[in-house]
């Protein structure tokens, strides 16, 4: 006669659940708070997760997730998504309306470059390659920040413009993940990796803007001193 499974074996703790799915404990907490995972809390305040529910979410045995390129996710598609979001959800930013056609084209070119490097970063099969693509994207982001500062845009305006780019990018990632049949673990890993990359690029943009703003102020102050000395 076979022995029945004890009730304790049907539920696992946070650490074990995290290891089974290959996601962070923080991610599991968010999922349980949102009702995506069956969970109960012990009198001592510890979460217990349903083993059966976890097994249904466990990643497949394929060595790595399919590429985003195979899902036809390109910088052009992201640019189209950006324009749709801009038209459909909110009016154009006032400072954007003040830009010349040439300046707008420059910002579009920067956005295209950032999107391309981010996609290469997310699709890289080796950590070294991913780091190199992210580094190149950060260089472009810093250039974007310097360009914005040179045009007289404030830091808050520059950040606002960057955030407008981020949401459509995330949207297209989710669409691509669904199109290619990513499992829960793969989709979560993709989005967390994208968030880390975006955070790095936002910091690079802000650093580029701040450094160039300081340089401009020093240059103006020096010019005024020289002009004062000539009088």
Explain this structure.
The chain is mostly helical and 231 residues long. It has 9 helices and 3 strands. The protein has a 3-stranded antiparallel sheet. Helix 4 packs across helix 6, helix 6 runs antiparallel to helix 7 (127-150) and helix 7 runs parallel beside helix 9 (184-230).
- Average residue-wise pLDDT: 80
Number of contiguous helices: 9
Write down the overall geometry.
Answer: elongated
Helix content: over 70%
Largest sheet: 3 strands, antiparallel
What share of residues are in beta strands? under 5%
Distance between the termini: 105 Å
- Rg estimate, integer Å: 24 Å
What would you call the structural class? mainly alpha
Q: How many β-strand runs?
A: 3
Strand order, biggest sheet?
1-3-2
Instruction: Give start-end ranges of low-pLDDT stretches.
Output: 1-8
- Compute the number of structural domains: 2
Question: What is the N-to-C order of secondary-structure elements (H for helix, E for strand)?
Answer: EHHEEHHHHHHH
